Amino acid sequence: MISEWYECVFNKISAIALPIALADIYKFRKDELIDTKPIKSFSSSCALISSLLTKADDTASIYQQFYETPVINNSRDFYISEKSNYINGSTVLNYMRKVCSTLEVEEHRMKLILEPQSYQKFTFAIENVLIKDEQQFIEFGFPEILDTYVINDIRLAYFLLSRFPDSLLGIQTIFQNKVKETGISELESLPRDKDGSVEPAVFVEKIFEIHERFNNILLNSFSYDPIFIKALDCACRDFINHNSICSSSSAKVSELLTKYTDLLLKKGSKIADESQLESKLDQSITVLKYIEDRDAFQDFYRRNLARRLVNDQSSSFNSEQSMISKLKEICGFDFTNKLTRMFNDMEMNNDLNSKFRDYSNSNRSIDFSAKILNTAAWPLSYSKPSLVLPKNLSTVIDSYTQFYNSRHQGRVLNWLWQYSKLDIKFNMPQKGNKPSPSYVFTVSTSQYAILSLFDSASSDIISFSEISKSTGLSNPSIESSLAIFSKVKLIKVINFSSDGITPVPSDITISALSSFMLNNEFSSKRLKINLNVPMKSETKKESIEALKYIQEDHNMAIQAAIVRVMKTQRSLNHSILVTEVINQLKSRFNPKILDIKKAIDSLLDREFIERDSNKSDIYNYVA
């Protein structure tokens, strides 16, 4: 019965009803007032007949054939024509806003003219026309939208294109390039010193500011979509490690970051609030995650921590421990365990010094404390000292050595004078009835050795050669100390005129021919003055030496990786060997192709590996 009615009646009625329904839907889209009930009734009738017919094929096709497909095709054709009005004379942003508005209207409209099973197909058809087909148009205008940093506008592009996951790749690439270009450009524009260097705090905080700017977009515009997380990470890694500031060395960014953390954790830091300090340390960890040369960071960090602990410059034990906990996640247990051992040494020293004070209380002339450091845990260099200690200092050193050896037989103490310091009291000559001022100078051991000569010398004037002979210090070391004394006007530099007899006071030039005398007119507003500060040239020299050490360590690591790979594979092609070495080392640092080639040449020369006699690009392991 239903089949006959369908064939005899429905076909004829639908041929009349469908064009009317399509015409009314067109008017509906043109904002004309229409009655949607007849349209919905026709849609429901088609669906009802499909459900009543028993044949599966009919059930699937009647509603689609007589209503769903014509309506969807008609809607698609309408927007193919209509979208030209959206685009012409419009910006990409306005186009996207119009599309978004249209989709909202159509979502409401489809419920008045279609059955629920058609909603997805209907929406998909319109989205294809307005979004997928105009993907290139949207991508073309996206960089300009991204430049504005307006979260809602950027989110609109993501909201539309995310309906087609593969359509996000275009704006993902644009976003990644934007982050990289912004990072390189803004780091390039940072203020520089005369030697081209940049302040560590300025460098690190600019990196974090750039990261946070785009991370805000990632969170609020891209809903933390994994492909955009990857884009931000890749871009940050690129601009942080490869920029004009760090072009001289792959370890430069590590050096600047560790200098920044050193400033945060050292006494005298301008950040007094603990929560603010924690926030700054978290920022440094964020930057560290993107650094390729983690080995360099670890080396610099250990060196700086060692200085803070040895010089009693650490501002807070809790902050130091907090930073170690943060580093454990990125650098691993082996690294942070070395840092923890350094702290353990410091705690043990407190007890040892307390016992020494009791031991030497009766005959102690100097308030003395020592820091006994385990050689394996501390990155401090030792060389046999040439320094001749002043008598009063050598006496107490001998006493401590005797005390220590009595408790730790078999151990050898190597004194690192370059890391030692003293507080000395300096009394000015009295003038008239006024009491003479006293100053406390913090000096290095070598500086003390020089100053003590002015106390014991038979003359007020001491020559450079006398200082050299009495202290055993090298000329550069003497010049460095005297330059600091001269800078604060603690001493007067005396150079002689061309006749070699007439003295010419000078505070400019220090040479091996100079002589020196204490400045009895010295005065300062500060009663405690730190003279144990490295000259800028010395700091730079230390930095160069550290970078050289790191490069040598990298070279050894590359050679070790090559040997490991070749020992396992026995025979390997050059390009495959290079790839394997990079994969083994990339968690520590990114080895350069040139460095790998040099390491291969070195191993060939030392016959760890050899070239294949038939193919020059094949290497064989030599057992």
From TrEMBL:
Gene3D superfamilies in alphabetical order: Cullin Repeats, Cullin, Chain C, Domain 2, Winged helix-like DNA-binding domain superfamily/Winged helix DNA-binding domain
Keywords recorded for this protein, A-Z: Isopeptide bond, Ubl conjugation
Source species: Smittium culicis
GO terms under biological process: ubiquitin-dependent protein catabolic process
Coiled-coil region: none
Listed name of the protein: Cullin-1
Annotated InterPro entries: Cullin, Cullin-like_AB, Cullin_homology, Cullin_homology_sf, Cullin_N, Cullin_neddylation_domain, Cullin_repeat-like_dom_sf, WH-like_DNA-bd_sf
Domain of life: Eukaryota
A Pfam match: Cullin_AB
SMART domains assigned: CULLIN (SM00182), Cullin_Nedd8 (SM00884)
PANTHER family: CULLIN
Single GO MF annotation: ubiquitin protein ligase binding
Family: Belongs to the cullin family.
Annotated ranges, domain Cullin family profile: 252-486
